[in-house]
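Training component of the fellowship. As part of building independent skills, the fellow (R.M.) carried out the full modelling exercise for a liganded target. The chosen ligand was zinc ion. The inputs are recorded below so that the supervisory panel can assess the work.
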Amino acid sequence: MPMTPEERKQYNKTYYDNNKIKIIQKGCEKMQCPFCERIIIKNNLLKHSKLEICKRKQQENINTLSRLNYIKYPLETSFNLIKNP
Ligand SMILES: [Zn+2]
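Fellow's submitted model of the complex:
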């Protein structure tokens, strides 16, 4: 039987209270940004990915990807560009 929203809320609260330290430690771990490869703190990924330094790299990645796509499938890519410029 599925939980009611109230039960779910209580369950989440209990879970958080019991695992607080583990959850906080996990969020403070360092990781490599998947876009720009800088070392960042896990909990900051969303905030970091909106920064100019990371956004620039994300745009570069998109450009590289579309160039690679063009090299692999020149006809299809140009066809798509004609279809959706
Ligand atoms: Zn980044």
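The panel noted the following from the submitted structure. The longest strand covers residues 30-32. The chain has a mean pLDDT of 88.
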